[in-house]
Amino acid sequence: MRRAVDIVDGLGVDELMLAAIDATRSTYPHPNPRVGAVIVTPDHTVLSLGVCHGDGLAHAETTALDALSDSSLAKGATAIVTLEPCSHQGRTPPCTDALINAGIAKVVVGAVDPDPRVSGSGIRRLSEAGVEVLTGIANEAVIAADPAYFHHRQFGIPRVTLKMAATLDGQAAALDGTSQWITSAEARDDVHRLRSENDAVLVGAGTVIADDPSLTVRRDGYEGPQPLPIVVVGNREIPRESKVMERDPLMYGLETQGSVDLAEMLKDLGSRGIMSVLVEGGPTLARSFVTSGTVDSFVWYVAAKLAAGTGFPAIAGRFESIAEALDLIVVDVQMVGPDIRVTAVPTEGSA
Ligand code: AOF
Ligand code: ZN
What we know:
The protein is α/β, with parallel strands linked by helices. The chain has helices spanning 13-23, 60-66, 95-102, 121-128, 139-145, 147-155, 185-196, 205-211, 262-271, 283-291, and strands at 36-40, 46-51, 78-83, 106-111, 132-134, 159-167, 171-173, 200-204, 228-232, 250-252, 276-279, 297-303, 312-313, 328-336, 339-346. The protein has two domains: 4-146, Cytidine Deaminase, domain 2, CATH 3.40.140.10; 156-346, Dihydrofolate Reductase, subunit A, CATH 3.40.430.10. It is 25% helix and 23% strand.
């Protein structure tokens, strides 16, 4: 991972923006965005830093203004903000007005807020009040630090990550159903990190019956929220004593006699404010997600193990012709303990 940027005096706007992004990494504000703000003097002496800690809590800009040792320091100062300041009265008053009233002379914006209530109006409001506004600084880094927020506000549905663990030759489980120890302890810990980055973790009934997972984040020192469990039940009976049932999961497929339209399910999740879903299902559920074109990112753990035969391939179904294969762009490859983690996204238009 990129080294966190130390906020020291005299940094340029790009570095200050990266520092503001870094400050948001340990926040869990969904369904609010991750936002960081740094206030500096015109010659970039650092005056204060603020982040939005949680949904419904004070926004980054007002937190940074409140953190000034003396409120008069804001006069003529520059605010570097990862997201366009809001201009609407939500559960908190508009940040644009807080910045204007404090006397901030210049605002540097990372990304435009895709929320329809803002979407450019924050920038307009600042400009009209005579505040100098610079936009698009480290825009891609801002989006990469909270891709689910931008995805959810743009499409109204959560960003879907499909996680899979398989042997080097693509087998997710042996014929006797054993699968739990395909990847190493390090890779399994990495899956918990992945869970911690998602609002919800989704499995199918088959996984609940076979593995009885609790779908919680269990990592040393982790104090963030637990992802919401979702079970695509289909027409199967989930044992009432399953661990996940203690966590009051969202369940899909009961009223519809088993058939679950994944696109409809995602719309429902989006309307509930769920911005990211980690799919940890078995081969059949993976197949449904892939063929419905709903996967935004694939995280593939390739174990340093060879099945040397066919058990249950990572994705069920038949591969009839090369034209059916999904073209991917590999965006990251990492060793995780003895295993390999590959992150890939569908090419434009192939999802
Ligand atoms: C900012 N700075 O730190 C955040 C912003 O209900 P509210 O009042 O919290 O408003 C939520 C919306 O405000 C959210 O959807 C997004 O558009 C924006 N979040 N804006 O200027 C912040 N967290
Ligand atoms: Zn705001």
